[in-house]
Design a protein that fits this description.
The protein has 355 residues and is of the alpha/beta class. Helix content is 45%, strand content 15%. It has helices spanning 9-17, 36-48, 73-87, 103-115, 133-144, 165-172, 187-199, 216-221, 249-265, 271-287, 296-307, 326-336, 343-354, and strands at 20-22, 53-56, 94-99, 120-123, 149-154, 177-183, 207-210, 223-228, 231-242. Strands 1, 2, 3, 4, 5, 6, 7, 8 and 9 form a 9-stranded mixed sheet that branches. Helix 2 packs across helix 13 (343-354). The longest helix has 17 residues, at 249-265. The relative contact order is 0.13.
Length: 355
């Protein structure tokens, strides 16, 4: 078993200050084989964009990388780690590994990630529908003994499940939980998590991140306030760990800095509500809720293909393709919201990233 490594004080400060953490896609060639050149280029893009980390081997990286016929989990994790290490960044940049499966698999994936130098694991709750909340808490405790854990509330429509307030309160008490990504795409369930953390004795040790791609800006601008044993406790969602931020990342970094400034000013202009809708509509084009999210990964790929970062939109599953009308919706986002894309930034650096 790899030796457990905690986040450094500098990494913890960065995590709690709020970071843009893109969910790293998988670059394939036309034969649906790993395109190492473009896989490395994507990691370079995220670092150059000013992101504060990457999440690798997550949904956007395609869960099929774990299947024996592809055997891509270790290579994909290793390539990203090599690029980050070679960059020798002078600022914190978190390497986060997606971890999933039953306890034995989750532990094996955590140990692999730790050996490759990853800083934390994003622990998926997917595929555990038959498990009790108690069993899932024990699984979490086991993984948190291997490496720092970021919890993950995944929306039921893509394999997640609904958890109770009491589950999240107990989850927050587990030593080794450093953050929670909330992605139920549901305001009620998001509030449950924030309130549970506020009720926890570890509330100041856990950073909250949005994964609600349908409500990014509002999540980041909101101060949550709860009465905990007659004491007013406040908590904010400080950053995002998002598939949406796998594209137009440089603009996402600018956006988060603007939001941080707005939070500091304690005066939120109503124009932010309109901007939230713009970002949410662009997410609808990328993530394809019109077809039950069937085209969410190809949608991300299509934007990266247009920019030259990917050669095509291929997925390991040949049936995973753009939905009817999705490319036209992405084109409409370029037309209606040109201020959201970072095409010029990508164009100016693409050759060096591909070198």
């Amino acid at each position: 078993m790899a030796a457990h490594k905690n986040l450094s004080a500098e990494q913890l400060r960065a995590l709690h200050s709020g970071l843009v953490i893109p969910a790293h896609p998988l670059a394939l060639n036309s034969s649906r084989q790993l395109d190492e050149q473009r896989q490395r280029a994507l990691t370079r893009y995220y670092m150059a964009s000013g992101a504060g980390g990457i999440a690798v081997a997550v949904h956007s990286t395609q869960f099929e990388i774990r299947e024996e016929r592809y055997n891509l989990l270790e290579p994909v994790l290793r390539l990203a780690a090599e690029e980050v290490d070679n960059a020798r960044l002078t600022r914190p940049f978190l390497k986060i590994a997606g971890i999933c499966g039953f306890t034995d698999q989750a532990l094996a994936e955590a140990e692999l990630a730790a050996r490759l130098g990853y800083d934390a694991g994003l622990l998926s709750m997917g595929g555990l529908q038959g498990w009790s909340e108690e069993e899932i808490l024990r699984r979490t405790e086991a993984v948190a003994e291997v490496m720092p854990v970021i919890g993950f509330y995944l929306q039921p429509s893509v394999g997640g499940r609904i958890f109770s307030f009491d589950f999240w309160r107990r989850f927050a008490e587990i030593p080794g939980i450093v953050a929670i990504k909330m992605a139920p795409f549901n305001r009620y369930q998001t509030i449950d998590v924030v309130r549970a953390v506020c009720y926890s004795s570890r509330r100041d040790e856990i950073a909250l991140y949005t994964g609600n791609d349908d409500n990014i800006i509002n999540d980041l601008l909101t101060t949550y306030r709860f009465n905990v044993n007659s004491v007013s406790v406040e908590k904010t969602i400080v950053g995002g760990l998002l598939g949406h931020w796998a594209v137009w990342t440089q603009k996402a970094v600018e956006l988060l800095e603007e939001i941080k400034a707005a939070r500091q000013s304690q005066s939120i202009d109503s124009a932010w509500l309109t901007r939230n809708i713009e970002v949410t509509e662009s997410n609808a084009a990328f993530f394809d809720p019109a077809h039950a999210f069937a085209g969410c990964i190809p949608g991300i790929h299509e934007v990266l293909r247009r920019q030259g970062l990917l050669e095509g939109t291929w997925c390991l599953n040949p049936h995973e393709t753009l939905s009817p009308g999705q490319a036209e919706e992405i084109e409409r986002m370029y037309r209606d919201y040109p201020h959201l894309n970072d095409d010029e930034f990508v164009k100016s650096h693409l050759a060096e990233w591909l070198d």
